[in-house]
Amino acid sequence: MQTKLFIDGEFVDAADGATFETIDPHDGSVLANVAEAREEDIDRAVEAAGRAFPAWRDVPAADRGRLLLKLADAIESDAGNLAALETRDTGHPVRDTLGLDVPRTAATFRYFGGMADKFQGSVVPVEQGFLNYVVPEPLGVIGQIVPWNFPVMFTSWKLGPALAAGNCVVMKPSEITPLSALRVAELAAEVGFPPGVINMVPGFGTTAGQRIVDHPGIAKVSFTGSTNVGKMIARGAAETLKQVHLELGGKGANLVFEDANIPAAVNGTAFGIFHNQGQACIAASRLIIHEAVADEFLERLIALARSIRLGDPKQETTEMGPLTSALHRDRVASYLELAGQEGGEVLTGGAVPVDPSLADGFYVEPTIVQTRPGTRTAQEEVFGPFMVVHKFKTDEEALQIANDVAYGLGGGLWTNDLSRGHRVARELRAGMVWVNSYKRVNPGSPFGGIGISGYGREMGFEAMREYTEPKSTWINVDAPPKPFYPR
Ligand code: NAD
After folding, report:
1. Distances (CA, A) of 354 to 39, 347, 357
2. CA of 145 to the centre of ligand 1 (A)
3. Active site annotation includes 281
4. Is pTM, for the whole model, over 0.90?
5. What domains can you pick out in the chain, each with its CATH number?
6. Cα Rg for the chain, rounded, in angstroms?
7. N or C: which terminus of the chain carries fewer CB neighbours within 10 A?
8. Could you tell which of 154, 229, 246 is best to mutate to test the pocket of ligand 1, judged by most ligand atoms within 8 Å of the CB?
């Protein structure tokens, strides 16, 4: 396991020798001492990326793609190891890291490997005598700052399109979960990515992250994280006028209509909120349910929530692990307290599990709270296994509640009425909507939000556009060229 910085094709110590600890959230033990990138290390990484850029841009697109395909293969071959590392660093159960996260990481690298030589420009039908073509050009050095909730997957979401398009990257994983990203960098070096094309520099936000935002050699910052830090990044990036792509928080609305398939909706709702301990920007954190089916639905949902197997994420049978850090567990716990102060009724959960084998870990029970739509618990992102419930009588009321938050990332609805499905999907203020499902993602489908959930998109052709700038070139094909000043 590499815990050094990966700069210019080599694993190196931080310039000043700084390190930090990453913690196993199951028992609070120290997992590794990780080299900590600070400003000087970011500068070294940006210089290396800048030096690598001209040659990398000129590598034929198909060959850039082939390297991404090889990286996808290497990730698949290393799946057991990568999943175990991710599970220990994040607390995400191994059944998910092995069953979902690592396969999705490989699939996303593979998608963008295939995309590299298919993302092409255009010829514009301009006036006679001219040829005008538009080429999507890479931007140069991209700074990427990612959070701790799906660290291995985010390497592919961000590196995949940026590299396929011909950019070089300086990526800062979260200081809370740096290990899987370092392993991906190591695999990338093994499959032959040239030095400097990928630089992996774990460190803290206010030092390493801030330097990425400020550095004049970086053309664009792609950030995934909280809305507050996203705002700071947008403000900071304005100084050098670098481009910004922001994937921020969410408060997903999950609407259940009276005609829904209740067992399917119960199952999808539980997955929507409790998968990865609710630490997902697209979590179904608000259940908005028709009053006619609310009692039956909640009875089934509560029974399912109580049956979720909470425990050591390394066990294959575990369905829910600990929250990723002690600090975050405390933050989630503060919302449990707030819910009570705001008059919310805890329907299930709301406590730290009593099982003594989990006492040193950062565990919180699956929690469901009935509360009013305007409360802070119903408006703010909790980012934990914490769902609020609101009831409605009409479609209009359901939509009014759903759209009454400043976030606009993911949302879902459950109905057997086709017209209602399309109508409500259209009216939901969100970048992604699932009908009779929840939390589907695919490398080809654009991922991102509106409002305070940010702007720009990961995945698909949209991601390739994020990492390129269209260059328009005019060729005068008249012979001889028409003079500007006929004499
Ligand atoms: P965070 O904003 O605290 O940190 C995210 C990253 O930003 C980390 O790498 C951190 O070191 C860095 N950072 C912190 N301060 C910085 C600064 N001043 N300058 C530059 N970088 C800085 O978020 P988090 O707690 O790690 O992650 C949880 C948040 O991420 C939630 O709000 C969640 O909704 C969001 N998220 C969004 C998406 C999405 O795609 N929209 C996906 C996952 C998570």
Report:
1. 43, 18, 9
2. 8
3. yes
4. yes
5. 5-248+453-473 (3.40.605.10), 253-435 (3.40.309.10)
6. 24
7. C
8. 229
Structure-block tokens of residue 169: 């990257």
Residue 36 a catalytic site member: no
Any residues with Cβ below 6 Å from ligand 1, and which? Answer: 145-149, 172, 174-175, 204-206, 209-210, 213, 224-226, 229, 232-233, 247-250, 281, 381, 383, 409, 449
Tens-digit pLDDT profile for residues 86-143: 999 999 999 999 999 999 999 999 999 999 999 999 999 999 999 999 999 999 999 9
Look at residues 404, 13, 402, 405 and name the one whose alpha carbon lies nearest to residue 413. Answer: 402
Task: Give the end-to-end CA distance of the chain in Å, rounded to a whole number.
Answer: 74
Per-residue HEC secondary structure of the chain comes to CCCCEEECCEEECCCCCCEEEEECCCCCCEEEEEECCCHHHHHHHHHHHHHHHHHHHHCCHHHHHHHHHHHHHHHHHCHHHHHHHHHHHHCCCHHHHHHHHHHHHHHHHHHHHHHCCCCCCEEECCCCCEEEEEEEEECCEEEEECCCCCHHHHHHHHHHHHHHCCCEEEEECCCCCCHHHHHHHHHHHHHCCCCCCEEECCCCHHHHHHHHHHCCCCCEEEEECCHHHHHHHHHHHHCCCCEEEEECCCCCEEEECCCCCHHHHHHHHHHHHHHHHHCCCCCCCEEEEEHHHHHHHHHHHHHHHHHCCECCCCCCCCCECCCCCHHHHHHHHHHHHHHHHCCCEEEECCCCCCCHHHCCCCCCCCEEEECCCCCHHHHCCCCCCEEEEEEECCHHHHHHHHCCCCEECEEEEECCCHHHHHHHHHHCCCCEEEECCCCCCCCCCCECCEECCEECCECHHHHHHHCEEEEEEEEECCCCCCCCCCC
The pLDDT tens digits of the residues spanning 11-60 come to 999 999 999 999 999 999 999 999 999 999 999 999 999 999 999 999 99
Please state the atom number of ligand 1 nearest to the C-alpha of residue 249: 34
- Distance from C-alpha of 98 to C-alpha of 396, rounded to nearest angstrom: 41
Q: How many angstroms is it from 340 CA to the middle of ligand 1? A: 28
